[in-house]
Amino acid sequence: MRKLLIGLAALLALAGCGQGDGRTRIYLQRFFGECGAEFGASTDVAKAEGECGIMTSMINRFNAENPDVRVDVNVVAWPGYPQLTAQMAARDPPDLVTMHAGVISDYAAKGLLEPVEPYLARAGIGADSFTEASRLGVTMAGRIYGLPWDTHGGLWHVNTALFAKAGLMSGGKPVLPTSPEELIAQARQFQERTGKPYLIQSLVGDPAGAARNQYTYMMAQGAAVFPDARRIRLATAEGMRVAAFFRRINEERLGTLNMDTPAAIAAFMNGEGGIYPTGTWMIGSFEKEATTAGRPLYESYAVFPFPRLWGERLEFVGGHAWAVPARERSAKQKDAIARFFKFMAAHNFDWARTGHIPAFRAVLDDPKFKSLPHRADIALLGEIGRPLPSRVRRQSAIEGLVGEEMAAAVTGQKPVEQALRDADRRVNELLGELD
Amino acid sequence: MERGRLSPLGWAALIFGALLMIAPLLWTILLSLKDNAELVGNSGAALSAPYTLENYAAIFGNDMTMRWLLNSAVVALGTTAGVLVLASLAGYGFARLDFPFRRTLFVIVLLGLAVPSQAIILPQHQLFAWLHLHNSYPGLILPGLIGPFGVFFMTTYMRGIPMELDEAAKLDGASRWTIFWKVILPLTVPAQSTLAVFTFLGTWNDYWWPLISATHSDMYTLTVGLAAAQMNYAQTSGLGFLMAQAVFASIPIFIVYIVFQKQIVSAMAGTAVR
What we know:
The complex is a heterodimer.
Chain A lengths: L1 H18 L4 E7 L5 H4 L10 H16 L3 E7 L5 H9 L6 E5 H8 L8 H7 L8 H7 E2 L2 E2 L2 E13 H6 L3 E2 L2 E2 L5 H15 L12 H14 L16 H15 L9 H9 L5 E5 L3 H8 L10 E5 L9 E9 L7 H16 L1 H5 L8 H5 L1 H4 L4 H4 L2 H4 E2 L8 H16 L5 H17 L3
Parallel strand pairs in A: 1-2, 1-3, 11-12
Antiparallel strand pairs in A: 3-11, 4-5, 6-9, 6-10, 6-11, 7-8
Chain B lengths: L7 H25 L3 H6 L12 H8 L3 H32 L5 H10 L9 H10 L6 H5 L6 H12 L4 H8 L4 H12 L1 H17 L2 H6 L8 H8 L4 H4 L1 H21 L1 H8 L6
Helix pairs in contact in B: 1-15, 3-15, 4-8, 4-11, 4-13, 5-8, 9-10, 11-16
């Protein structure tokens, strides 16, 4: 028995040695999946591919370059907020966490996130180095609550072969509409000449897509979608104009109906329509098709921000940020977080290879970034991108409600005005319940 | 027609039904054997070669997969064992012992069947946080032991066992514990097996509680771990991997079904409870 106890004590002592290796530990929690099989040992960020691969390699590289710090990574199921909320409730949040810009307000309003200006200052990062879109995404009531590291939003992915067949190419670029009337005219022309729908739309089970259209074109008209933090106002002349227009597209059968996201992606890849409005995150997959001989999209792909149809050229966007949940930390841990910020900012170009728009103005303007496929065409998103007002909470849930009602409006399931009023009512009820 | 033999039409209907049932499983397996990129544009590619095991290699290439498998096994087996012990003891008490407020207590237990787990998740989480039990095996196992269904199930079963057995054992000088352990418990094996299978399957497939209690990846169960390993757009750009995960996570369940087929069928047919 005595020998057994001594053996156990020795084992515990050995286990303890592993914990106390003198390195400062920071606990990082992220989504983007797990790809240890392929990139678990990779520190060559330039050779990594995909969100997961690049992220894993970047963190490995940080660990390699900072031998006195160890970043312990916890990969969570996307988007990870149920776990983060549970950790916060248990007073055991991570030191760093991936967070969508639209979610920051939910946590920051309750004091669950640290303002990060001290970390930024220590890392030598000025808020003026962020793009307008990313700066707005992480700023709430004048404080910065995260290191922004990308902007993502809707893009028009274009099949240029079909556009050429439709006579809608000029100087090697697709001719995109500049007004609602022009869009209808071009769509009719496209449909007549190709026999295919102008727009491929994922209107089933994709509320984010429908909400993106509504937010974008209401913002462009100068409408205050959220007149204050507790109130949405979609049932306005501007809102009616947008919803009625997209309904008209569907009534004239200029776009696909009844497709979910996988079906719409497959349809676009198989050359079954002219434009697929979806996000920055699909650039990599479509570009791969466009560079593979024999594929329907081969050498026939271009991508642009949403065209200006009304008013000013603005577009609703989101973004990813590194947030720092509030908890006690040692000076060394705070220093390690600042160094991590500096490292991530320095490697923002690598992350931009995923298709997302850089969060830093210098990277956005860098010829190296613009030389990546299609990036020169979409870089504008970093400047014209606008998140929802940061004081508005529950943005993710709101997007779901707005998207549901907008999809009902544009597919004809509900009269446009009723759908807008229903969206207003449902969202305002939700916001009214917040403490 | 000889009793118990099927007519050709019956066979045809049976085969059609079986094919209908097995088709989604086959579809899942075929998708899991395809390159993700090939499936993005056309999931119909699953019906033709080439096939690959790379999605399964990616699952096993993750250092944590076996850990998650072990965690699921520990939690599912621990919960099952705990439920059997508690439900048997409680069932014996409610079915065969006379004590004050027995009926009232039993009704209170039955009321537990009407309370959905979501309704108590917040206080439960707070309680476990207060006890520092999150990210631990007890934290994952203990909530599963609250099983009014198991108590009801065992009580009903034990009520069906003749009281004469207890009386005969008492005449032979057996204690309460001996009667429970040596006379009654062996007679409840069919019910125990059924309860064990249901508890094991329910715990193995549980996602919600492990998601918010096991927040460190080394304590994830397989359901949570596999979900975390998925890319953001798994249903489009990682369909093959997603399906390989589904197949992999189903294998232990499949084995349980094969081993305990008799008990599951009798439970489904309602013959486990007399």
